[in-house]
Amino acid sequence: MGNAQHPPTAEYSSRVEDGFFWVQFQSRLDLVDRAVVEILAFLRACALPGYDDFEIEVVIREGLTNSVVHGNQEDLGKKVVFEARVRDNQLTLVFEDQGAGFDWRKKRAVDSVDAELDCGRGILLMRSYGYDLRGNARGNRIELVRVFSVE
After folding, report:
1. End-to-end alpha-carbon separation of the chain, Å?
2. I need a labelling partner for 110 at 20 to 30 A (CA). Which of 83, 124, 128, 129 fits?
3. Is residue 78 a contact partner of residue 27, using CB atoms and an 8 Å limit?
């Protein structure tokens, strides 16, 4: 994979390098869709063993949507930053917003959620796909790590 770059705008900018994808965008849900398309194209090209488009799209879409809606409260003056790094068979996904943050340690400890609720499933879902989760002290930056193996 060589270097590829889209012309940056005030609302959206992305960069691809060998084993690395970066995007920053305004807190808009339509830009989540644009980012997901680019991220999936990058990850497909990385040829991770056992890669599953659906599974990874669910995880990425959940993280980006949470950053826009819950983190930045859809404030158009705030940005979401996402990074994907692939090294050997390890995938690292980083989601960062400019919101107040949340207690990711508490959410990580949850093993089930009330089926009646329409939110609160994101971290549980990410963990169910085998991602290790950690975050910063503020709780506005989440890092997911997963090692893919040949089965």
Report:
1. 25
2. 83
3. yes
Per-residue pLDDT of the chain (151 residues; tens, 9 = 90+): 444 555 678 899 999 999 999 999 999 999 999 999 999 999 999 999 999 999 999 999 999 999 999 999 999 999 999 999 999 999 999 999 999 998 877 755 556 544 454 555 567 677 778 889 999 999 999 999 999 987 6
pTM of the model: 0.87
Tell me if 129 sits within 8 A of 77, measured CB to CB.
no
CA distances from 68 to 45, 46, 118 (A): 27, 27, 16
Element (H, E) at 115: none
Domains of the chain in start order, with CATH, are: 4-147 (3.30.565.10)
Rounded CA Rg of the chain = 15
Please answer whether residues 22 and 60 qualify as being in contact, where contact means their C-beta atoms are separated by less than 8 angstroms: no
DSSP SS3 for 80: strand
Site of tokens 């090209």? 45
Other residues' Cβ atoms within 10 Å of the Cβ of residue 60:
22
